[in-house]
Amino acid sequence: MPQIRRKIKIEGKEKFESLVKQKLKEKENKQEQQKVKHKYNEMGIRIIRRYDSWDVSLIGQSQCILMEGQNTIARTTMLNQKRWYNLFGTKSTESQFQYHWRIGIQDYHKQGGMFIGIMDIRYIDGYVQSNSNNISQNYFVKSKYAYGMDANGNLQRGGKYIGKACKPFSKGDIVDIYFDPNIFILRYGLNGFGLNGEKYGVAYKVRQAIYKCCIAIYGSKHCVELL
Known about the structure:
2 helices; 15 strands; 19% helix
């Protein structure tokens, strides 16, 4: 009887240890699967998805713009002819996050114009006010505290041409904006690629500040979406 009890005890212990090993293996596999699903930047910092939308409190004269899709889609109206309109996202950058905005170009007319980029939140108010001007010729990249790219893939800051970021975009394209608020590096891409097919080359080394995603649109019949 003692031998039988000992045998049962040993078998029970082995079964328990096997079960523990199995659970540990399952846990490790799950962690590996989660690791694959997460995105990491070149510094090994995990990129967490945070959804943004256009900030309706920063619209100004709303007749020039129509908001759709829970304020993720902005469409310019006929009242925006021969003038610029500036839009800003709701999210302000924080150092513990990496940012990837994706701007879908649903409609774009070449007789108009467009800038996509980021702006220091301390200087946004002046451009919100100019939205209420019926003949506004003010767009955010005129400021030295903003960084943008036009529809031809040209970089502009302070109203001046800086260089080239990617190929021209048009209807159906997706413009990618990557921003690292730890080292203040801004990158652009178009449909997943940068200039000459490279992966998101550095567009700007920006000032240390808190930023919002922004876009300036000239003319009517344009439509952009924050994806």
